[in-house]
Design a protein that fits this description.
Structural class: alpha/beta
CATH superfamily of the largest domain: P-loop containing nucleotide triphosphate hydrolases
Distance between the termini: 27 Å
Strand order of the largest sheet: 6-7-8-3-9-10
Order of helices and strands: EEEHEEHEHHHEHEHEEHEHEEHEH
CATH class of the largest domain: Alpha Beta
Number of strands: 14
CATH architecture of the largest domain: 3-Layer(aba) Sandwich
Shape: globular
Length: 386
């Protein structure tokens, strides 16, 4: 691993519950993120993903443990941390009245960079927004607003970028566009710390992944390493007619076979011998089918790791985690909740990452942080740290 850009050791955080008592959200998590890595933190709603980001970004203080970002202690050197990071929350924090170019120039001026107009032009080109630069944001699609939001995050050349569920609510095309932006960030040497509800997003983007469950890191490694923890591959059998599939289910009564449309997913030990036995059973019954060996997905690995395969409510094929509506936020601040019923639009407007109300760039975010001035860095209308 490269020299660590982020180091967390034994982070603890609890919040007061709505009915009294406390809820322990983080129970001593440890991880490191190398410079230039894309690191994904996965977990169901309430696992503590956003809480971890808020601690690392100095928005809240941990109850215990230590964390360093860019070599600076988040509790004692908050100003230094904020000078080297950028945070993009779950919803685009842009000004809809301004044009894309004006938003970027405004951010450059708020960050006191030498040439805000020139920097705005560079970011517009990098994020593919030059043609739409002078249009008001009311004419931008959701994906274009998100790309602009990310472009604003790159003003000032941060070393570390925190992306908290950056594709929430976007359509597939918008998500692909944001993914390419994240890859562009990584190629430029920026360290990206990503949380997401989409397993294929982490699979596509992340160099390393950590699974947060019950307030602890349950597993970590590359996507390939995590997939190796899942049960063996399945044999996928496809049929042209339901009647043929029904006959196949009878012929394979001794196997664990699950119907999925006009296909059967047959659990095997991954060996050629057992695959041949399954196909021989179909041949004996004169059943026509095509087949493919289907490797474990990251979604299957995730469910296996957290042991939630039998209790998770999910929409088939959405690749979204949906478990716990109690998401560990203090005083009613809620994370985006997902229902598994409408994968096209599942975020709510409940989550505003508001930690301050003022316009004071030296607003104090961190509890007990004696060095928490923002050095002129902007606080947007949604309270997200830029």
């Amino acid at each position: 691993m490269n020299r660590a850009a982020i180091v967390a050791r034994g982070l603890h955080k609890s919040f007061k519950g709505a009915k009294g008592g406390t809820q322990e959200v983080l129970r001593g998590i440890d991880f490191e993120v190398g410079q230039g890595e894309v690191f994904a933190l996965l977990g169901s709603n309430g696992a503590g993903k956003t809480t971890a980001i808020r601690i690392l970004a100095t928005l809240i203080a941990a109850d215990g443990g230590t964390a360093e970002v860019c070599g600076f202690d988040v509790a004692r050197q908050g100003r230094k941390v904020r000078e080297c990071i950028s945070l993009t929350g779950q919803f685009a924090a842009v000004d809809d009245i301004l044009t894309g170019r004006e938003n970027l120039i405004m951010m450059g001026k708020l960050r006191h960079i030498p040439d805000p107009r020139g920097e705005a032009e560079r970011q517009l080109a990098t994020f593919g927004l030059t043609e739409a630069a002078d249009k008001p944001l009311s004419q931008y699609s959701g994906g274009m607003k998100r790309r602009l939001d990310l472009a604003m995050s790159m003003i000032g050349s941060p070393q570390v970028v925190f992306l908290d569920e950056p594709t929430t609510g976007l359509d597939p095309q918008g998500r692909q566009s944001v993914w390419e932006v994240v890859r562009t960030m990584a190629r430029s040497g920026v360290t990206v710390f990503l949380t997401t509800q989409y397993l294929e997003e982490a699979d596509s983007l992340a160099d390393r992944i950590a699974v947060l469950d019950g307030g602890r890191i349950a597993a970590s490694g590359s996507a390939t390493q995590l997939k190796s923890l899942a049960p063996p591959p399945k044999l996928e059998l496809s049929f042209l007619e339901e009647a043929e599939m029904a006959r196949a289910l009878k012929a394979l009564a001794g196997y664990d076979a699950q119907a999925c449309g006009l296909s059967l997913l047959v659990s095997t030990d991954g060996s050629v011998r057992q695959a041949a036995e399954v196909l021989a059973a179909l041949e004996s019954a004169r059943i026509a089918a095509t087949f493919a060996q289907r490797p474990p997905t990251l979604e299957e690995a995730f469910l296996f790791i957290i042991g939630a395969g039998s209790k998770t409510d999910r929409s088939p094929g959405t690749g979204m985690i949906d478990e716990d509506p109690d998401n560990g936020y203090a005083d009613g601040d809620s994370d985006s909740s997902y229902t598994g019923e409408n994968p096209e639009f599942e975020c709510t407007d409940e989550n505003l990452e508001i930690e301050c109300t003022g316009e004071d760039p030296d607003s104090s975010y961190t509890e007990g942080d004696p060095d928490n001035g923002y050095a002129g860095r902007s606080l947007t209308h949604e309270g997200a740290l830029r």
